[in-house]
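Thread: "does anyone have the structure for this chain?"

Original post by V.I.:
We have the sequence but no experimental structure in hand. Need at least a predicted one for the grant figures.
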Amino acid sequence: MKIGSGEPKTKQGRASALLLAILVTVCLLLITGILAQTWKNRLIENTKHRAEHALLQVRKNLYLLLGSEQTFTAFFAQRLEEDLQNGTMFDLSHYDTYLQFLRETQSSFVLATIMRQSEILDFFPKTADALDPNAFVLIPEHLAAVQAMDTVVLDGPIRYQGASRYFVCRTRLDEGGASSILLNLYFDFDRLMQMITGDALSDDYQYFMVFSHVDGQATYEWGDPAVLDSDAVTMDVSVSMLGGTMSIAPKQPWMGHSVPLLLYTILGAFVSCSIGFVIYHRHQRYLLLQERIHRDGLTNLLNRKGFEEVLRHALAEDFPFALALLDVDNFKQINDTYGHLIGDQALLSLVEQCNRSLAATDTLARYGGDEFIFLFRNCATQELCKALHQSISQAYFRSARISFPMVVSMGVSFFPREGDTYEGLFNLADQRLYRAKQEGKGRLCTE
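Reply from O.Q.:
Generated one for you, tokens below.
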């Protein structure tokens, strides 16, 4: 490596600094992203908790409403049983005023029917606008199940003429053990759902609810099925012989626009990039300082300390090389005659000539004043060193007003043939440089 300009090492340092800055920035951005995602998940979780609370309220309303229907059915059945115990035949006209009042005040109430062994004995109301009890499909298995139970059974959904859907409250009536009579009270499922969802669900939610009988053959759906594709909050419902699933989701995404989260994300990204820039900038300053410590201010060549580090690496590589000391003959006379400014320009001209003569793997450094030191890699013969000296010794300084030759002397030592330590090789090259100057200057001494 020709360490005259130091560009390869500088580029390598910049690349390492940039890589370090990128790694730190990416790590910080990942941490920021993870924290932002955690925050976002927490916001979504809180929103889902609120949705779950609303769904719990819907289920509570459903249980309360169906419970009140069961209570009413049980109370009405008790009144009918009292008539049976008194020997009175079934006649819903006895309760006409009461049933009419319920029909007008309870929007979900439709009609009542008394049956024995699937035969309708009586029904209310008997007006033309009433639903025909015969139009309802009453599953015999359901009736048998009710006969074996003492409590009111909620059953459904049952379709009427393929359109509206209803559920039925059924209970067993005791005729003194002679037979069983069922009381059927039909309620409009659509109106029931409007009642239980109206107060509990705001306009911000969309919902989808499915109810069916335990056998799963008849199914009632309420709402938009697309809710199931929106990561909906779901809750199961089971009342008597009626089971279902309720699902709700917000009309907008679970997490709306969160200004604090947005600001945190922007600030986190800015801070991460800023830290990466600071790391890169500080590393660059460190590299520059390191360069200045190991560089000569005039020529930008390695100084003595920087060259010693290169030489120690070369000794560790254990490849043959030549160590050469170069001195400009009569350089003091050049400074005294033309001034130090011309002397500095002459040194720069010599360095330029040396760099043109060196291989890419060679190293040139300024050892001090007008002395330079070379490390010629793969150069272990005197002939190669003589050729290099001849090329360098042809340096000539020229300016607009002044021109003069740059006469140089050089002393060379060889590794590993003549030494294997920095001190030994340097002392030997220094002795040979002194001998070259003593023997007439402008000479090369290799032995």
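V.I.: this helps a lot. The chain has two domains: 1-278, 304-445.
O.Q.: and Residues 1-278 form one domain.
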